[in-house]
Structure formats: structure tokens, C-alpha cells
From TrEMBL:
<dbReference type="InterPro" id="IPR010188">
    <property type="entry name" value="HisA/PriA_Actinobacteria"/>
</dbReference>
<feature type="active site" description="Proton acceptor">
    <location>
        <position position="17"/>
    </location>
</feature>
<protein>
    <recommendedName>
        <fullName>1-(5-phosphoribosyl)-5-[(5-phosphoribosylamino)methylideneamino] imidazole-4-carboxamide isomerase</fullName>
        <ecNumber>5.3.1.16</ecNumber>
    </recommendedName>
</protein>
<dbReference type="InterPro" id="IPR013785">
    <property type="entry name" value="Aldolase_TIM"/>
</dbReference>
<keyword id="KW-0413">Isomerase</keyword>
<dbReference type="GO" id="GO:0000162">
    <property type="term" value="P:L-tryptophan biosynthetic process"/>
</dbReference>
<keyword id="KW-0368">Histidine biosynthesis</keyword>
<dbReference type="GO" id="GO:0000105">
    <property type="term" value="P:L-histidine biosynthetic process"/>
</dbReference>
<keyword id="KW-0028">Amino-acid biosynthesis</keyword>
<dbReference type="GO" id="GO:0005737">
    <property type="term" value="C:cytoplasm"/>
</dbReference>
<feature type="active site" description="Proton donor">
    <location>
        <position position="137"/>
    </location>
</feature>
<dbReference type="GO" id="GO:0004640">
    <property type="term" value="F:phosphoribosylanthranilate isomerase activity"/>
</dbReference>
<dbReference type="InterPro" id="IPR044524">
    <property type="entry name" value="Isoase_HisA-like"/>
</dbReference>
<dbReference type="InterPro" id="IPR011060">
    <property type="entry name" value="RibuloseP-bd_barrel"/>
</dbReference>
<comment type="pathway">
    <text>Amino-acid biosynthesis; L-histidine biosynthesis; L-histidine from 5-phospho-alpha-D-ribose 1-diphosphate: step 4/9.</text>
</comment>
<comment type="similarity">
    <text>Belongs to the HisA/HisF family.</text>
</comment>
<dbReference type="Pfam" id="PF00977">
    <property type="entry name" value="His_biosynth"/>
</dbReference>
Length: 248
């Protein structure tokens, strides 16, 4: 165990996914698979009280192009002042990006826009640097866009383009694992880290403290953190336990 304790810390980002004004979790990102977990403001406050340094906040309605939870996102960010918020979902142009930063998001996670509008993505990466992460949502080696309903091209080709644009960070999700509690796709994470010197954040499939321990072992290879969702909401472990395993 002593060797493990010397491993650098893994940053944990508890997820708050918002749809129809409620905190929800999806299975494999599919609309219609929502499990409702109540008020997103309460959920975020709960994670903050338990020691979260970051929260991964997602507007699912904006991601699916079926509406917006902008008012609630603003309330969430205000509620957890002092906690860093990474905001994701439907940020596809200057107006939505600037609004996200104005309401207090520390980091913006670009998904569809990075795939469908590479010139714009490159310009905001150049302009905002560390404030922009790029979400790589993957099935096999094919990227998923538009709330994971459309193919977004080949992972490695898109990554080459993003590396050239100077992307500061990647958030990598195996869509087939997300919300399934089947464990993270470590092979995919290793392949991505082999292709970049930028920090990588893992997402999807975390089911146990053992999964968090396994991801922490990848920190020396370039894994910076992991988003944790359904396992926390389902009570598989507490955030305090997860933070302990992650090295906090």
C-alpha cells in the first residue's frame, strides 16, 4: 500500500446531469433512460459539503437540442461557490460559451462543436486555453455527437486535429460504459494518453472504489481525473471514501 500512497492524486469530479430541471442519470447516454435524483442544486451542494473540489455539470436538454436549463445551472454554480465547475452540454457558439463563463463555470467541456465546427473550436481553444476541455465521447474508435445520437468521425483523426489546435485537456467517455457501472475502459484511456501529452479526464463506467484505485494508477501516464456519476447516486460508495482512495 505504501507505493500506492506515493502515486499522485486523481482529481474526482462528481457529476450533476440536469434534464427537465431535475438531477438525472442516463444509461449509455440514451434519452428515455433517465433515473431522477431530485433537485440539482441540492445534489451539487451535497457533493460540495462532502469535499468535492470540482463538479461536472451537464445540461442534457441543451446537449440533445431539446431545451435549456440555463437558470438552474446558474443557481447550481452560485450554490457551490468555491467549488470549480466544469460545464458541458450544448455549448456550440460564442454566445453560449461566453454565457457559461459569465455564470461562473471554471471550465467548459466542448463536445459536438469540436467535431462539427473545428475552425470555431480551434479559435476558442486559442483564445481561452485552460478554460476549454474537449469531450471525446467514443463508441469503439468512432466519436459520438449531438447528445451521442450522431457519429462524429474517427477518434484518432479528430485528436490529431485537436492536438494541432493546442487543446489543453480531453474528457474521454466510453459511451457504451456510461451509466452502466461496468468499470472504466482502461485500454481506451491508455490509447488516448499515448497520443497526447495533455491531461486526460476519464468518464463512464465507474462502479467501485477499485475502479478509482485502478484509474489512480494511470495518473503518472497522464490521467488527471475522473468523473463519477451513477455509482455515487446509487450509493456504491460515498464521496468521502472515493476521495480517500483518490489520494485526497
Amino acid at each position: 500500500m505504501s507505493e500506492f500512497n506515493k502515486t499522485p492524486r486523481l482529481v474526482l469530479l462528481p457529476a450533476v446531469d440536469v434534464a427537465g430541471g431535475k438531477a438525472v442519470r442516463l444509461t449509455k447516454g440514451e434519452a428515455g433512460t433517465e433515473t431522477n435524483y431530485g433537485d440539482p442544486v441540492d445534489a451539487a451542494a451535497d457533493w460540495a459539503d462532502q469535499g468535492a473540489e470540482w463538479i461536472h455539470l451537464v445540461d442534457l436538454d441543451a446537449a440533445f437540442g431539446r431545451g435549456s436549463n440555463a437558470g438552474i445551472l446558474k443557481k447550481v454554480i452560485r450554490q457551490v461557490r468555491g467549488v470549480n465547475v466544469e460545464l458541458s452540454g450544448g455549448i456550440r457558439d460564442d454566445a453560449s460559451l461566453e454565457h457559461a463563463l459569465e455564470i461562473g463555470a471554471k471550465r467548459i467541456n466542448l463536445g459536438t462543436a469540436a467535431l462539427e465546427n473545428p475552425e470555431w473550436a480551434a479559435s476558442v481553444i486559442a483564445q481561452y486555453g485552460e478554460a476549454i476541455a474537449v469531450g471525446l465521447d467514443v463508441r469503439g474508435t468512432t466519436l459520438a455527437a449531438r447528445g451521442w445520437t450522431k457519429d462524429g468521425g474517427d477518434l484518432w483523426q479528430v485528436m490529431d486535429r485537436l492536438e494541432e489546435a493546442g487543446a489543453a485537456r480531453y474528457v474521454v467517455t466510453d459511451v457504451t460504459k456510461d451509466g452502466t457501472l461496468q468499470g472504466p475502459n482502461v485500454d481506451l484511456l491508455r490509447q488516448v494518453m499515448d497520443r497526447t501529452h495533455r491531461p486526460v479526464v476519464a468518464s463512464g463506467g465507474i462502479s467501485s472504489l477499485d475502479d478509482i484505485a485502478a484509474l489512480r494508477e494511470l495518473v503518472p501516464l497522464g490521467l488527471e481525473g475522473t468523473i463519477v456519476g451513477k455509482a455515487l447516486y446509487a450509493g456504491a460508495f460515498t464521496l468521502a471514501e472515493a476521495l480517500d482512495v483518490a489520494g485526497y
